[in-house]
Amino acid sequence: GWTEPRCVQACPLRALSVVRCTDEEYDRIVEAQGLKPLYETAERPRVLYKNLDRYTSVFIAGALALTNEETGAEEAAEGAMVRLSLNGVLLAEIKSDWFGEFKFDHIPKNTGSFDVECEADGYRPVLMKAVVADESVVLDTVLLTK
Q1: d(CA 84, CA 116)
Q2: Fewer CB within 10 A of the terminal residue: the chain, N end or C end?
């Protein structure tokens, strides 16, 4: 007499769900939620995962800092431009957040050597290499200088 499988009903985070729908509804749900099968071999997989790329891809992240000329203290480089390139081709461009941090997501594993270029107004640009293998790359804090 259960309306849902026991695992779905018992999950406190509601991370599991069972959906009975038409093929059109199925396709719409898969597209809207970005669902993917664990293996791409099945034509109409019965089990799909959300955010699977967190486990099948990696990221490149880091933090940028500036030197305050008045106090000599290091400050987060908020709004600095960070560019990611592979083999001379620009792939992405983002600005660092309030903490001076940046993150490039959804990078396929074992992709190779990326160029990470960081620049802020009035400071010299910095070029770093990030070699992507099986794990994500977190670059050391980069100090931008005048």
Answers
A1: 5
A2: N
